[in-house]
Amino acid sequence: MSNIIQAQDLILSYKEDEFIIKKCNLEVKQNDFVFITGKSGSGKSTFIKSLYGEIKVRSGNLNVCGFDLSDISNSQLNLLRKHIGVIFQDYKLINEWSVEKNVMLPLIIAGYSSQICKQQASKLLKHVKLLHKSQKFPLELSGGEQQRVAMARALAHNPLLILADEPTGNLDDYSSEVIWNLLKSVRQHIGSTIFVATHRIPSTLGIDYKHYFLDDGVFHEVS
Ligand SMILES: Nc1ncnc2c1ncn2[C@@H]1O[C@H](COP(=O)(O)OP(=O)(O)OP(=O)(O)O)[C@@H](O)[C@H]1O
Ligand SMILES: [Mg+2]
Q1: φ, ψ at 24 (rounded to 5°)
Q2: Residue nearest to ligand 1 atom 16, measured at CA
């Protein structure tokens, strides 16, 4: 099976003289379910940002879905992003758009007809138990509801790679269970690779997963 993510001696930083990720060697294969944990401020979100080209590679190699992120043009980056679904730690919903239209966004970008977009949005909103809120706006929802909209949007275009930054951070046990089940189901039925940053790996996941622990800028493989 091919590698979806491959990092070799990867270093990431926001400032010239301050390395956030000091050493990352990691291999993620298609269909893997991967967790990264580490204390607050350890660089989990920073690493996730590098995977979709939000921050540049300072040094070393990073390959995602066959794209070399240490040297990538804007047009290639747009292509790469079509293969990725991201659930951001701060959701990044469009507040002026309805819940339904937010979920439709990746499909609109991909050029699907409005009928297909609406059908797919309804299906996903049903999965995250929010179909009844599809005509509401994000700011009319609770934090956990917004998080579930963000999840539905990330899955809308059946991405090859799903990056989830604290996807259950704001959710109660029941809603967290809904999210983990959804991610497992997408992995099983669509063959997606799931990459999650979290403080808490669910004890009831019931599948094999890889776990990397991020400590002082260095990745350690736990299992
Ligand atoms: N845009 C930025 N500019 C400069 N420094 C940043 C920026 N974003 C994050 N940092 C710094 O990078 C370090 C890692 O932050 P990051 O958000 O990756 O941590 P995290 O592991 O995701 O934490 P949390 O568990 O709280 O979400 C922190 O010290 C933070 O201050
Ligand atoms: Mg974070």
Answers
A1: -135, 115
A2: 43
Q: Quick check: CB of 167 below 6 Å from ligand 1?
A: no
Distance, in Å, from the CA atom of 149 to the CA atom of 55, rounded to the nearest integer, reads 25
Q: At what angle do helices 143-155 and 114-127 cross, to 10 degrees?
A: 130
Decide whether any atom of ligand 1 lies within 6 Å of the 16 Cβ. Answer: no
Class of domain 1-83+160-223: alpha beta
User: Which residues of the chain carry a pLDDT beneath 50?
Assistant: none
Would you state the structure tokens that stand for residue 160, as one six-digit string? 């090859």
Looking at the chain, list the stretches that DSSP marks H as alpha helix, in order from N- to C-terminal side.
Answer: 44-51, 74-82, 99-109, 114-127, 143-155, 173-190
Distance from Cα 116 to the centre of ligand 2, integer Å: 33
- Residue 171's pLDDT is 85
Joined tokens for residue 206: 């019931």
What are 172's strand-pairing partners?
none
43 DSSP 8-state letter: S
For the whole model, what pTM was predicted?
0.94
pLDDT digits 0-9 by tens, 81-125 = 999 999 998 899 999 999 999 999 999 988 999 999 999 999 999
Domain residue spans of the chain:
1-83+160-223, 88-158
Query: Could you give the CA distance from residue 223 to residue 193 in angstroms, rounded to a whole number?
Result: 17
